Amino acid sequence: APSVSDLKDARFDAVVVACGVHPRVPEIPGIKHPKVVFYNDLLSGKSHAGRRVAIIGAGGIGFDVAEYLCHSQPDEPPKSRAMDIREFQQEWNVDASLTKAGGLSGDPLAPKPSSREITMLQRKKTRPGLGLGVSTGWILRSSLEKRGVKIVGGVIYQRIDDQGLHFVAEGEPSTLAVDTIVVCAGQVSNRDMLTELLKTGIETHVIGGAKEASELDAMRAV
Ligand SMILES: Cc1cc2nc3c(=O)[nH]c(=O)nc-3n(C[C@H](O)[C@H](O)[C@H](O)COP(=O)(O)OP(=O)(O)OC[C@H]3O[C@@H](n4cnc5c(N)ncnc54)[C@H](O)[C@@H]3O)c2cc1C
């Protein structure tokens, strides 16, 4: 990536900063424990998740991470399933031979085996996944339900240690004995080079997640 002095040397008339976001680091004691990974490192394949996983945060990214984990084996490199027609048909019991009534070979919502035990947690008491897309959120929710993904709301995080993730829900203290804790707890703007850049006096425009990280989606970023 270019440094601020590279940008200065290139004598640009203006610079647009569109460096995106960093994951937000929640203030939970033990957040630097080796069990903890951040969603960006997991999805890029830099970090891996074990068999028993807790996901901190049940927003859009938390749901995508849960879906990704349901369809990958522990320690397997990430792969895209988006274009795998056969896997889609198996997932939803679509009858590709077109011989069965309704085009279905079975109940599309029947439980499916999962190689992982996944629990999603959120601080809010509202229904999990409330902010998911109206036309697509139900697909994600059904897909996770089929694989037995649990969602716990109204959580107060206590700490992370060798035992796992400790929290309180509805007044009851609990411990999730997990191998991996994936943090999907929001984002903060990536302004790593902004302060230095502004000092140069070059005309600077900040856009997308670098400008405002909350409630970010691709529509607002552009
Ligand atoms: C798992 C996940 C699922 C999502 N799903 C959706 C969705 O379904 N719909 C939707 O609308 N949005 C979705 N989003 C949000 C969407 O990705 C963001 O809102 C959008 O990408 C923000 O655009 P941006 O240009 O601000 O940043 P980004 O798209 O993140 O781009 C920033 C780029 O800057 C690069 N960069 C960083 N620092 C430097 C540097 N110093 N020099 C040069 N380059 C640098 C980064 O490598 C990156 O390529 C999702 C996000 C995630 C993480």
Structure description:
Strands 3-10-4-5-6 form a five-stranded parallel beta sheet. Strands 7-8-9 form a three-stranded antiparallel beta sheet, with no helix packed on it. The longest helix is centred in the first third of the chain and has 11 residues, at 60-70. The model has no long low-confidence stretch (mean pLDDT 93). It has eight helices and twelve strands. It has helices at 4-9, 39-43, 60-70, 85-91, 137-146, 194-200, 208-211, 218-221; strands at residues 14-17, 21-23, 36-38, 52-56, 117-121, 150-152, 155-161, 164-169, 172-176, 180-183, 187-189, 203-206. 23% of the residues are buried. The chain is globular and about 65 Å long. The structure holds flavin-adenine dinucleotide. Residues 1, 18-20, 43, 60-61, 64, 190, 193, 208-210, 216-219, 221 line the site of flavin-adenine dinucleotide. This is FAD/NAD(P)-binding domain-containing protein. Keywords: Flavoprotein, FMN, Oxidoreductase. Its cofactor is FMN. Pfam families: Pyr_redox_2.
